[in-house]
Every structure is written in structure tokens, then in C-alpha cells.
Amino acid sequence: MRGLNIPRGVRQVLFRTLNTDKKLMWKKKFDTSYVGFMRDGAQWLVDNTDIKLVGIDYLSVAAFDDLIPSHLVFLEGREIILVEGLKLENVKPGIYSLHCLPLRLRGAEGCPIRCILIN
Question: Where in or outside the cell (predicted)?
Fold first, then answer.
């Protein structure tokens, strides 16, 4: 994570990983080998950045082998919004404006959203 050089003040980061290269979001069968955060990577982001939103290109921001610990780091450490299931195949690294439009669901802990990324 340190090598990404995410500067202080950056509030939202989308991670385009090997999940996109493998086209995992287009496959019908769930793939447990997807790229996601382990607890220590999530903790590093919480401790060393100002990020309030983490987006990733598969169905979970947390690695399959570390689901609960990674999610807890993001959700208990401070209020970080997790955006999962992004299709980022045509998105190049860079600075964008991100707008997330959630469905309003009463009593839900999560909901579907439509994300708009503007270059």
C-alpha cells in the first residue's frame, strides 16, 4: 500500500486490480481467488490516509481468506464507505470525480448504487 503514494487529502480511491484483467465481474461463477484487502492492508489505509471511500473491482473489498477482519478494519476504524462490484475495464489510472448515487432503502446496511466517474 505504501508504494501507491496516496497523498493526504485524497478522500476516495478506486482499486483496479487483476480482477479486471481476469474479467471476474463478467463471470457467472464466484471466484474465491479474487484480489481483495487483507487486514494489514486495510489497516494501513485507515492509519496512513484520509480515505473515506474505497472501491474495488469485485464483489468484496476483502480477500476471501480474510473477509471479516478486513471489513471490520474499514468499518470500525472510522466511517469508510465500501463500494464493491465496480466494472473498471476502461478506466485508466488518474484523478477523477466520483459520484455515487445510492438507492434509498430503510433499515438496510448496504444498497445498490450507480457510480458515475468523470474525467
Answer: Secreted, Extracellular space, Extracellular matrix
Q: Which of 43, 69, 68, 71 is nearest to 56 (CA)?
A: 71
Residue 20 belongs to domain with CATH number = 3.50.30.50
- Is position 99 within any domain? no
What is the tally of structural domains in the chain? 1
d(CA 42, CA 51): 11
Contact 105, 111 (CB under 8 A): yes
Residues 6+ apart with CB under 8 A from 113: 83, 100, 101, 102, 103
- pLDDT tens sequence across 70-80: 999 998 866 79
In this prediction the pTM is 0.89
